[in-house]
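hey all, quick one before standup. I had two proteins in the batch that finished overnight and I want to keep them in one place so we stop losing track of which output belongs to which input. First protein below, input sequence then structure tokens straight from the run.
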Amino acid sequence: MTRYWPVLAGLLRALALISAIVVIVFLLIRAVPGDAVDVLAAQGDLTARQQAALRTELGLDATLAGQLRRWVAHAATGDLGQSLRFGRPVAAMVTQALPTTLGFAAAAFAFGFALALLLAVGALLAPRSPLPALVEAVNLWSIAVPTFVAGIVAILVFSIWLGWLPVIGNLPVPIVVLGLDIAGQLAKPLLEELREARLAPHVRAAHARGLHPLRIVLRHVLPAALPVLLALASVSLASLIGGTLTMEALFGLPGLGSLVLNAVNGRDYPVLQAVIIVLALGVVLVNAVADLARRLIDPRVRA
């Protein structure tokens, strides 16, 4: 039983974290001045009586505790409520937008991960080439340039000045912009870990046997750095999600980012909290899987 306790403890921590996220998101969203009825009233002629009746119909006149209890009770059955702005089931709206977000995030992460791996391995094998400096430059880029700024600059250059790509629905540019940010986060720490792993006795023995340097890196150095690589990838997930939502809103992609933007503008509480909680669940789940994978492949973590 004791060998499974770390996994059970991780699941309990994940449940506690998800519960805290639900409450915090619920309260923060409603801390914003105004609600969906105020937005509708600003767009048309609604009397005070009509506004009060609409708040009662939408359940906005209940206390925060009452609204939270009702939302949790419905969410436990899979009912995320109705959009206050569009009157559609929130679950259907999230399900419709989720594939676009997952596909875009997966493409950006794959590009960034592959680029970071190529840069780190190349800099390790050719320390006197420009590659180590390029690793530093990409790392500095990810620290100094926010993704939304890079996205705006990309729109100005490739869509407005050069006219090569449309602004709305353009996929290659946001994938590259977000992928560069991910590569900058991963490449430098990965290179440092590879340099440390190369000093291991079995790696030195492989060098002494005259094996090709690339073969040594692929067969001995990279596997030793795999636990750290998994940790880096899971840590970069939060940045990936934030960048994905930003890029979708900037480039008009029909994903969760555009859904969040419309929900914020319309004070659409059910949509906004559903999207945030779904994303938080995804982060918690991926981190839990990454932690379990590290325990399986790294004896030091199991100990």
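OK second protein, same deal, sequence then tokens:
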Amino acid sequence: MKILLNCVLLLKAEKSEEAEDKYESMLTKAGFDVKHVKTLEFRFKNLEELKEKLYKPDSYSGIIFTTPRSVQATCKTLNNENLDKRWMLKNNYVVGEATYQHALNDCGLDCKGKESGNARKLADVIINDKNDITEPLLFPCGNLKTDTLTNEIFEEGIDTDTVIVYETVPNSTLEDEFVDITSNYTNIPEYFVYFSPSGVDFTFNIIQKLSVVDSIKFIAIGPTTEVALKSKSLKVNAVALKPTPHDLLDAIIR
């Protein structure tokens, strides 16, 4: 078992749906060899419940999307119908650039918060608008969400109406993919980049099989993923504070 220097393993839900994965592109241009393992799969649920709420925009001050998947659930709920235009006049929020682009392109919503890299920072953005928020914020999300965002804005008098619209489960071929990209555990990338706490949880049994684990440089996207790695007693080499290719590259090379 050996370490492949300057090789980066991206452990995330899936490669970008765009023709070119922006993370891979930036890292490749910087001289890294990039590999992917899909860690997660998603199953949509409660879409009828979400649909009923989307038909009642006057009951809400806006909507919160913290992941691209929550935007996809909203689009799937509408089944090619256009989102009621009244939503576009409300206080709508996202975490990160990727979710912002999905909300803009798929739902026509120009949301605040694309500069925020995590729930805590988005909470600050929302709290700044608290005088304009008189009704709850609709919050379609996944089953593994933390309570950081909802707790912080609740303390400022802002309510949310949460709907669990997807479940996160391990990729059914996760270990097979890992065996394939590591040539049956013989060639291990120098950098392991984790995009979510669930990715850490779902791959930990694989990590335990690696005799070179102390030589791997673990990179976390965001503080929540950092906490997940540390909870497994894995040394975090660096943290990208925002889920962007530029922030990831900075975390790796600094």
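Flagging for whoever picks this up: The beta strands are 2-12, 33-38, 40-44, 62-65, 93-94, 137-142, 160-170, 187-194, 217-221, 236-240. The first strand starts at residue 2 and ends at 12.
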